[in-house]
């Protein structure tokens, strides 16, 4: 069945594919009851470092998808002992959109109706049997590129360019999702760097950027269990869905002290930096009410000497 290959094109595609897929974190699920066909697909995929999963029935396929959420590509045959590829595809589409999980339907080249039905039912693509390695790799590559590009765009839209922290927009999305789960015990803090303008004025804007990135790293690691964000220029916000006020105040005061102890070094300059923090618990008016309150406490912290936590 294997069509004549153009070795150079094949090599080129292989290189592209391995480069695209260097992190090996992407899983591919093959749902096909025919052993020969399934083995051919998985051995091609494994040669390119994909983590592959095999299923002989539709049910097994859906179970694998539930269990392994790094599966981003599904290759599905239509003839399955317990179901059809089209039905499984419809079930996958109820859980995940085209840009989250790509599905490629396996059709027979004689059966143009089936390939059309796959596409109409939400498949990203189809592969008509018999196919050559070159075509197989082209289609896999294109679909993975699509998924990865969407992921890149999403990440860029959700994060702050300078620090990589979630941005303000993404912060509100995550808080909305978290507050649906845990509406009782919530805290929010606004963190503002003290006299940050002085760092820019004294050591230059690059040093300011460096300082922001370093502080963002500390925010990110300290509050990895919560929802941190870069909120504005030199201001960060942290939402804690499951923590009481007294515990939160203690956590933020430890953070403040740890930061004040850091000796920042940039191009031969050595300096310290501090933050003021306003912390509040759940308020009427939801997260916007909490933000207003936290901002008042932050203002208090600034007016009573800085490098302190108010609540
Ligand atoms: P305060 O203690 O009252 O907060 O004083 P401050 O100097 O930190 O506050 P102010 O609001 O006067 O100045 C904030 C400065 O942050 C001004 C702005 O140029 C700087 N800034 C904001 N975003 C960035 C950035 O992305 N990079 C750098 N280098 N500076 C930034
Ligand atoms: Mg500020
Ligand atoms: Mg200010
Ligand atoms: Mg400031």
TrEMBL record:
<dbReference type="GO" id="GO:0052621">
    <property type="term" value="F:diguanylate cyclase activity"/>
</dbReference>
<feature type="domain" description="Response regulatory">
    <location>
        <begin position="27"/>
        <end position="144"/>
    </location>
</feature>
<dbReference type="GO" id="GO:0000160">
    <property type="term" value="P:phosphorelay signal transduction system"/>
</dbReference>
<dbReference type="GO" id="GO:0005886">
    <property type="term" value="C:plasma membrane"/>
</dbReference>
<protein>
    <recommendedName>
        <fullName>diguanylate cyclase</fullName>
        <ecNumber>2.7.7.65</ecNumber>
    </recommendedName>
</protein>
<dbReference type="GO" id="GO:0043709">
    <property type="term" value="P:cell adhesion involved in single-species biofilm formation"/>
</dbReference>
<dbReference type="GO" id="GO:1902201">
    <property type="term" value="P:negative regulation of bacterial-type flagellum-dependent cell motility"/>
</dbReference>
<feature type="domain" description="GGDEF">
    <location>
        <begin position="184"/>
        <end position="311"/>
    </location>
</feature>
